[in-house]
């Protein structure tokens, strides 16, 4: 997967020159507090190291979200063992995450035989849970995960999106 485009966004693999925006975006505590596995603070050196290790053609890796007309990196959506995403605070509330995640999910189901996609979010991350609900994810359980930014365990809502639910949702939107 080299690049996906939506009406307002470009989704592409990370590049070394993304490191400053990547580090800045996830170093904001308002963003980092929701990113359970990421170290905090997340430094420029960490971002550079991660981008050097990230294989650009692996669809399970992160796809960086670039606001059209290519003004710069504003967030990320990834589909590894779980769907995850973040968006830089100045871009909150504009629907970018929903738009980007919808493109990645559509690409994933069209190019794999996966039956479902898992995801999770802090129990009190209402914005993330709303995005997942819009995309058709359903709650499947709860667990505890350690948050590096908060330095304690946080209850997570586990969710899943079945291929059949996605197809029904997409056909409704096209009708």
Automatic annotation (TrEMBL):
Which PROSITE patterns does this UniProt record tie to the protein? GNAT
Q: Which Pfam families match?
A: Acetyltransf_3
Q: Which InterPro entries match?
A: Acyl_CoA_acyltransferase (IPR016181), GNAT_dom (IPR000182), N-acetyltransferase (IPR051531)
Protein origin, superkingdom: Bacteria
List residues of the N-acetyltransferase domain: 9-164
Q: Which SUPFAM superfamilies match?
A: Acyl-CoA N-acyltransferases (Nat)
Q: Which Gene3D superfamilies match?
A: 3.40.630.30
* Name the UniProt record assigns to this protein: GNAT family N-acetyltransferase
């Amino acid at each position: 997967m080299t690049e996906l485009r939506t009406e307002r966004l470009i989704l592409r693999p990370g590049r070394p020159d993304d490191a400053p925006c990547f580090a800045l975006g996830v170093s904001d505590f308002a963003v980092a507090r929701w990113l359970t596995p990421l170290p905090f603070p997340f430094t420029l050196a960490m971002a550079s190291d991660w981008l050097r290790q990230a294989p650009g053609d692996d669809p399970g890796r992160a796809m960086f979200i670039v606001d059209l007309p290519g003004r710069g990196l504003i967030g990320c959506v990834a589909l590894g063992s779980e769907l995850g995403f973040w968006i830089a605070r100045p871009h909150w509330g504009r629907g970018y995450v929903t738009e980007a995640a919808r493109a990645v999910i559509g690409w994933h189901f069209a190019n794999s035989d996966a039956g479902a996609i898992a995801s999770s979010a802090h129990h009190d991350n209402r914005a993330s849970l709303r995005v997942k609900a819009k995309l058709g994810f359903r709650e499947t359980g709860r667990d505890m995960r350690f948050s590096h930014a908060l330095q304690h365990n946080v209850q997570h809502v586990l969710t899943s999106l079945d291929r059949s639910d996605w197809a029904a949702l997409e056909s409704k939107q096209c009708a």
